[in-house]
């Protein structure tokens, strides 16, 4: 998410008096380097659906893939608004990040090839994807690829505790 350069808005109401805004570069780095993300979508009946997944950040946006028969893909057919989270599972160290936005299907072959190369570089041979029919293919399975167009990003620093908001859309 390097090409974005939003102005941080520090929220002192939910922060330690010693804290300050988290620089965008630190938040972007946390998103890019995360190995695991949690994606929240909404089912047709309004119930939430949350699932862990892997992903990459390209052109300022997180990307993920999913089989079209999976719950999250079915949810996205009706409601494209999502929240993606990542961070450290501790109270006193690390940075938690929340990206809110709209999931948009990626079908351009050139972009998919670049994303497949990024998955391979980040996760290794177990995540080697072929590109075809507007998505990823592996072991006879098809996966649609989605880009999250960020509208808002929140960063929660933990030492000292501080909440920063970035408005993007």
Overview of the molecule:
InterPro entries: F420H2_bilvrd_red/Heme_oxyg, Pyridox_Oxase_N, Split_barrel_FMN-bd. The chain is of the alpha+beta class and 169 residues long. 20% of the residues lie in helices and 44% in strands. The protein has a single domain (8-167), classed as Pnp Oxidase, Chain A. The chain has three helices and eleven strands; from the N terminus they run E-H-E-E-E-E-H-E-E-H-E-E-E-E. Strands 1, 2, 3, 4, 5, 6, 7, 8, 9, 10 and 11 form an eleven-stranded antiparallel β-sheet that branches. 30% of the residues are buried.
Helix content: 10-25%
Q: What is the chain-wise order of helices and strands?
A: EHEEEEHEEHEEEE
Q: Which CATH-level-2 architecture?
A: Roll
Strand content: 35-45%
What global shape is seen?
globular
* SS summary, helix count: 3
Q: How big is the Rg?
A: 17 Å
Number of domains: 1
- Structure class: alpha+beta
What profile does the largest beta sheet have?
A: 11 strands, antiparallel
Roughly how many Å apart are the termini?
Answer: 14 Å
Give me the CATH fold name. Answer: Pnp Oxidase, Chain A
| CATH level-1 class | Mainly Beta
Q: Which spans of ≥5 residues are poorly predicted at pLDDT below 50?
A: none
For the secondary structure, the number of strands is 11
Query: What name goes with the CATH superfamily?
Result: Electron Transport, Fmn-binding Protein, Chain A
Mean pLDDT: 94
Organism: Conexibacter stalactiti
Keywords: Oxidoreductase
InterPro entries: F420H2_bilvrd_red/Heme_oxyg, Pyridox_Oxase_N, Split_barrel_FMN-bd
Protein name: Pyridoxamine 5'-phosphate oxidase family protein
